[in-house]
From TrEMBL:
Molecular functions per Gene Ontology: ATP binding; ATP hydrolysis activity
Gene3D superfamilies (UniProt xref): P-loop containing nucleotide triphosphate hydrolases
ABC transporter domain segment(s): 10-243
Family: Belongs to the ABC transporter superfamily.
Species: Pararhizobium antarcticum
Pfam families: ABC_tran
Protein name: Iron ABC transporter ATP-binding protein
Keywords: ATP-binding, Nucleotide-binding, Transport
């Protein structure tokens, strides 16, 4: 089946959020991406990356500013309509989740469900498509709690894909994964044609994946643009307080970076 969807545009307008007004964790963040863009947000621990994501998928309401999907204010949409547009994969994994892999992935279809009706054939097709693409079909009957960390992460990504969203927001989706599955998940996300917003720690993975890069420090977005403009040795060194060295490839591929502590 063809499960491709069209992505949506996403924008933040002077976005501010914190647990209280005197403690802002996101400070005056503005950016705009077009349908199909893949935005990677980089920054040191505590920079405000996860807090920004929580604003973008409506977990917390901005104290100032707005989030817009194709020009519509996110908080003017119903919760169901927002869930049909945005799927989320977080770092936190439920410790006690007494469901099978098939059950968990099927939960991604809840925003598409009509009233109290049962699952349709279309629902089942999307679920099995997601399981196949994340190499999880052989684990469908396994209990989620029995899986490894990497397997659980793949299940949660599959649940997001089954949701049939236009925007996928992920917080460190490659955590707990070996190198092969890191590359497989990012390759899959790249192939979907959806709008992707994700945080990553691995700058070299971000170089290959992103169409747009943002760097955050102290709650502010200090850089935003295409990877070739943002990912420079100077900007990376400044953001992470290290010495970053770019290593260009002779075949014209994007550079790779190595790092050392700043003396």
């Amino acid at each position: 089946m063809n499960c491709r969807s069209e992505g949506s545009g996403l924008a933040a307008r002077s976005l501010c959020w914190g647990p209280r007004a005197e403690l802002m964790l996101v400070r005056d963040v503005s950016f705009s991406i077009v349908p199909g863009d893949r935005l990677v947000i980089l920054g040191p621990n505590g920079a405000g990356k996860s807090s920004l994501l929580r604003c973008l998928f409506r977990a917390v309401k901005p104290l100032k500013g707005s989030v817009e999907i194709d020009g519509d204010d996110l908080w003017q949409l119903s919760a169901r309509d927002a869930a049909r547009k945005i799927a989320v994969v977080l770092q936190e994994m439920p410790a006690d989740f007494p469901f099978s892999v098939l059950d968990v992935v099927t939960m991604g279809r809840i925003p598409r469900r009509q009233g109290m009706s049962g699952w349709t054939e279309l629902d089942r097709e999307h679920v099995h498509h997601a399981l196949d693409h994340l190499d999880l079909a052989h684990l469908a009957t396994r209990q989620f709690t029995t899986l490894s960390g990497g397997e659980k992460q793949r299940v949660l990504v599959a649940r997001a894909l089954a949701q049939e969203p236009q925007i996928v927001i992920l917080d460190e989706p490659t955590n707990h994964l070996d190198i092969r599955h890191q590359l497989e998940i990012l390759t899959l996300l790249r192939s979907l044609g959806l709008t992707i917003v994700t945080t990553l720690h691995d700058i070299n993975l971000a170089v290959d994946f992103a169409t747009r890069i943002a760097i955050m420090q102290d709650g502010r977005m200090t850089c935003f643009g295409v990877p070739s403009e943002v990912l420079t040795s100077l900007e990376i060194s400044r953001a992470f307080s290290v010495t970053a060295t770019a290593h260009s490839k002779v075949d014209g591929d994007a550079p790779r970076f190595s790092f050392s502590l700043t003396a």
